[in-house]
Amino acid sequence: MAQDNKLDTLRAEKERFVAFSFAAADLLIELDGKGVVVFASGAAKGLTGVDMGDLKGLPFVDLVAQQDKGVISNILDGMKEGDRITPVVTRMDKTSVSAIVGACKLPRNHGHVFLALNISSMASTRSGSEYRDSETGLLDRKDFLKLADQQMAAAADAGQQTELTLLQLNGLKDMQERLGDDAMGNVLDKIGVLLRRYSLGGDSAGRLDDDKYGVMHSASIDGKAIEDKISELTSEMDPKGGLSIQSSTVDLLKGALSATNATQALMYVVNRFVDSDAEDFNIKSLAEGMDNRLEKTMSRMLALKSVFQNYKFKLVYQPIVKIVDKDIHHYEVLTRFKDGESPYEPVIFAEETGIIQDLDLGVAQKVKTKLLEIQKRGDVLPKLAINISGYSLDSDAFIDSLLALYSDNEEIRESIGLEITESSQIKDLDRAEKIIQTLRGTGMEVSLDDMGSGSASFQYIRALTVDYIKIDGSYVKEVLTSKRDAAILKALSRLCQDLEIGTIAEMVETKEQLHVLNVLGVNYGQGWYFGKPQPDIDTKRKTRPITKNLKRKGFATSWS
């Protein structure tokens, strides 16, 4: 009887354990010591594409997509009795479904590993585009930062503390010379697997540059331990050399960094670290002051957002004239901050930290206010072109706000032009074309800035239907002395004539430049030759039509 009670108790405990497992997982799998499935229960077909009865006898790693096989193999091979892994997001091979995989290796279970597979919000944060480094299998910098943003938001919602470890691997080129290309490829592949192994969700690791790497991970994982693991790995594969590794770890939810725009601050600091070769921005200095750099960046972002949102900036207006007769066609609206301060650096900072939309909307609002004043006093409205960053054009919320701002006044709307700057930041040209045509459909004209300055200029002209393009000033500066630049300007001008696109030359400073531009067929010019940016615009009163007053005593008038 006592034996029966004991068996009933064990059976109840087992059922309770299974119930708890199914409450948190869609599929339970048990693997033997070789990683082969010996038991499965749950939504096998939906997750893996294999019927539950057919899973038994299959190596689990064979069910996983190629890009995740190395990570899963590394996890399973490295597990010891009593280990429980941080859940990783894994894509199934047959179904392409991404599921969170948790694993534990309980004592006294013959080396078996128990897996719980589940589909949840963490799986959905996996990078959609997944641009990967071919050598390591890690996300490239842009996709890594994109995924880091998503992972930080998901972790914050779940109350999970996350950290970022940045690593600089010194000596990769020397190692490649010692080992050769094939062996070095194997080293980089294993480094990629190792970094993903310890990353949040199994994919929050990226190759930021040739020798710089980033890993998002839970606070339970020591960033220094990741550094030691890579050092140990490379020493084994290259006993004569190995790598000198430096790392820096920061708590991503510390203090003010949990506020809005924290990820943009993080991205800015990471990008400055990757792009700078200066001694004062190496991994050592970063490690000593990462928190400080992030907090300073956040403080500056908040201060600039306040400037933008409270319109604490000035506008100046520079004329753009018709080259044929030098009549003013429209004005470009430029921003000025503190007296004597160049607007270039604050604008670049705003673009790189994601707050440029606040400035673009602030300028749009201030321009509307200016035009309303002119409209109320009965003057002819000048045409004004405001700068819109390619970053802003990528935001649906920004476009909605811009359209709403000008929706109530057709005359003002038709006096507005939009000059798209940083067009290289436009990621989806098909989407951008639809947005541009929506904007043009409201009466606003659109131009592309700095054409000719990048290799993709003709790609943008081909993909985006606009009213004007602005020719980069570097070509105009050299047009008198460089046959090559003159030829490029001539070809660009002819192309735009055929496409019915107006051409605007920047940085026109001399009469001689103006003459050559006229010969080459450029339509408009902008530069100090025509006028510097001014704090105001001279406007003219509207001419009122003279009509005879036909209404005399004894006469009736009508429209019929």
UniProtKB/TrEMBL annotation:
Gene3D superfamilies: 3.30.70.270, EAL domain, PAS domain. Residues 297-547 form the EAL domain. It comes from the Bacteria. GO terms for molecular function: cyclic-guanylate-specific phosphodiesterase activity. InterPro entries: Cyclic-di-GMP_PDE-like (IPR050706), EAL_dom (IPR001633), EAL_sf (IPR035919), GGDEF_dom (IPR000160), Nucleotide_cyclase (IPR029787), PAS-like_dom_sf (IPR035965), Rev_trsase/Diguanyl_cyclase (IPR043128). This is EAL domain-containing protein. It comes from Sneathiella litorea.
